[in-house]
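Q: Sequence in, structure out?
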Amino acid sequence: MPKSHAEVSARILALCAGERDRVALMATIAAELYQADERFDWVGFYRVTEPGLLRIGPYQGGHGCLTIPFNRGVCGAAARERRTQLVDDVEAFPGHIACATSTRSEIVVPVFDATGAVIAVLDIDSDQPAAFDAEDAAALEDLMAQVFSAPAPAAPGLQPWSAVAGELVAVAAGRAKADLVIRNCAWVNVHSREVIPGSDIAIKAGRFAACGPDASRAIGPETRVIDAGGRYLIPGLCDGHMHVESGMLTVSQFVRAVVPHGTTSMFVDPHEVANVMGLDGVRLMNDEALAQPVNIFVQMPSCAPSAPGLETPGATIEPADVAEAMTWPNIIGLGEMMNYPGVVHGDAKMLAEIAATQAAGKTVGGHFASPALTDSPAYAAGGPADDHEGTREEDAIARVRQGMRAMLRLGSAWYDVKAQITAVTERGLDPRNFILCTDDCHSGTLVNDGHMDRVVRHAIDCGLDPLLALQMATINTATHFGLERELGSITPGRRADCILTSDLHALPVEVVIARGVVVAENGRDLLPPPDFAWPDRARATVHMGRSLGAADFDIPAPAGANRVRARVIGVVENQAPTRALEAELPVVDGIVGMDGAQDVCQIALVERHRGTGGVVNGFVSGFRYDVPCAVASTVAHDSHHMIVVGTSKADMAAAANRLAEAGGGVTVWREGRELALVPLPIAGLMSDAPAAEVAAAAEGMVAAMLACGCDVNNAYMQHSLLALVVIPALRISDLGLVDVTRFERTDLLLADG
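A: Exactly. Output:
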């Protein structure tokens, strides 16, 4: 560095303030250092992208080596030995890699994250011999530490167990006073699967300190005491697999919607925003999760696109992105591995993402939508640890037999618990390997019906013992993600997340405590207003490129045809899979028409990420629309282009243009008039308005769809998944119609039509 190390470092730190994207930070540092000193002939970073391998990152100067193993060169030595390499003469360094013939001397500084893991090396070359000294090394090491090794932000109001263990022990031993004591409760112990009446629970520093018959010794003048009056005290509920974006809400607003329903821990997969904004969107979601007063753990999305070659998302996720995310605070594992054919057939990219997750000691989420159970062993061998796509008893059994956990979901439109819970209630399988989750719940469901409390009640109504249902929504989930010593039960040391309820069957959620603080009572949240703001770049993501007209939805018929036979996507109410149907359709003036008598209307996928103006048309059946109408949405799993369904091409065009104007959301049109609009300005997926406001707009949308003849349960969720090209049988993407049973594109019109 130049003589004024402090000056250069201060400038770099000022430029990097508030930024957490490592590539952006590295690019900024490389640019600044390269211009800071005439000694510096080349400045750049080599990132650890997989175990034992460095890959070139942002740099300034001539071309560098693309990859460097840990066992070669000066850079490899810095990463391998975890110490700075000062080389006065590169030709004298054993194994030196000559990326540039001009290099005479070199300094390489290892870059560590907050956990002490090597994430990269900073490499500076000079065309002068012996250009660097110990002062340079010390300054660069300090700069790297300040930028990349800052400690992870702590959860609000919560310290690690190790930091407060002494306080917990003191409270439990009667030497210190608790912050909160819950007296006279019926303690639901999910470890022993029993109810223990007459119990007291002492809480200190946001964690359970003592659980037993009498905590009077822990009560002092400053201790808050809650008399449970004999009510049940159950652990806070955990959602083992879910997508915040499906709620149409930001994380902050989602939390405020579900906390009154007793959900205190969520394991979220933000692959919706990843498909729109890439790693940047995931980082923003994770940052917002870290700011919450409850436990929101983030799974790094694995599949953007979900099916390479069959769709074009707004952004992609690469193995290097996964490896980087595994170093972030609060990343709990890899999100659902939807490209199950890729895993089964040994796709290198998919296996690399799984390997990066396993190398970090984290959990790989599964998504095995194939009905072919014979592929289960191959999928399980690839590394996914769970699956939520089962719809039959045999699906759940097959997963568990392969060492996976079966996640049984009850979302807004997915009713998969009843058919699968018989694996426990009738077949007697070990309940420890079953987890309850929601997967997708829109705001209306959250506000009006509930969240994980709804799932638990449903499982009980399906014949499951209440204590087993609670295990599947608490300790089973925590154990699955390696957090059984941190949450999921009311036992010493765990986060003090719990619910008071007067009935284990009906499960009314009367008081909710998260991290030792009362956060909801009798259906009302007591949380402070959210203070996380999504940036402007997340609010400008709808780029159609042009206005659409009715003719954009025309489907030309073969020359001379009067009727054609076409493939039709068949909606299955309350399930994610579709049917691959066929229908004979009329031709008028060379254009294939719809057929209301067969309940066949049109569907279109409108490109909205790159402004290409592209429109792909097809047919769908099952919505029961009976008037000229259209529904358009920028929520179109998983690539999240704009999906439009309608019986009127003019309304389809109007609906699409309206969403371009609104910046994203859902709109319903009938006979040239807009009936409803749900604005979703953040990535075209979410709103930062309060949940009740979004739910009211969503209810208006449902009413508008009903006014158009659609009485399908949660038709919007069915609508939003028609582009999900990883769930059989037939879907639509920006590249055409997709046969998901074969994972290949197929023609809309049949040759024998």
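The mean pLDDT is 93.
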